[in-house]
């Protein structure tokens, strides 16, 4: 199945400007910022075995910015356990923080701050390198006070136009921990599908290689609660996806909610997706199994009942303009071999989930 992606998006994927950053040591800034962007790293508190760090990003270019990214190397023996006001991922020892949906726009001279909590000594957490990047409106690179912005950044080779925006949506099986999204991203790009953009308000885990980590996988979330809250509409408005990959309902089954109640919540989400984009393509998973011995007594049966009902539900919701496509994530998935706790996928489970999504996505992207 081939589809034309025609969403109007303001501004192209922008190039980046890299500037030297300000490193704050012992609370005293060591000023070393260049034209473009500066980042100040401070340790707000330190209790020996853990610390809280803060970073302030400032637009020192002559052009407003639409987003920002900060990168630094995390010293050996340190980990980051929590973050706020930014989306943060760790790949090996490289930490990458990008703006949240509400604090990416920086006027000339404007600043945004984010924080994080980590393990290890705060004093020894100070990075020896830190780099700051800005996104410019319309894809240009913001120059210094006397420099013009750079040209718009085109799409990848052989893939002109705006990227196809793909939103992974669900609970912790979609979010973290886990690396199926990373595997899917790598498999798609290795196959030549480079003009894609995974979108969402949340960051993912470091999985040993670079990937587009953004997603809407929220640990512990019930699809029925999301449907009632209306929060999905906010996430959709912030990212405007073309395709949604939805694996949702595990926590609802665990909460012993009826199959029809879960399907009604699915329908509410589909309506919200189409309100954002009438041409939305929606891929809905028959969810992976749960081991009743390690979850709830009725969980295995609940998953089977939900999965059995999904195809008929999808057929009733699907339209030519906005198809609802069922992706079987249940068949061939073994809770003993493919999960680490009877519920969440391990490495082999991640690989199976990624492969199933890949096979469903490729016909849509051709």
TrEMBL record:
Pfam families: CBM_2, Lipase_GDSL_2. Residues 137-159 have a biased composition (Gly residues). Residues 134-163 are annotated as: Disordered. GO terms for molecular function: hydrolase activity, hydrolyzing O-glycosyl compounds; phosphatidylcholine lysophospholipase activity; polysaccharide binding. Residues 30-140 form the CBM2 domain. SMART domains: CBD_II. Residues 1-33 form the signal peptide. Keywords: Carbohydrate metabolism, Glycosidase, Hydrolase, Polysaccharide degradation, Signal. PROSITE patterns: CBM2 (PS51173), CBM2_A (PS00561). CDD domains: XynB_like. One of its GO terms (biological process) is polysaccharide catabolic process. This is Cellulose-binding, family II, bacterial type.
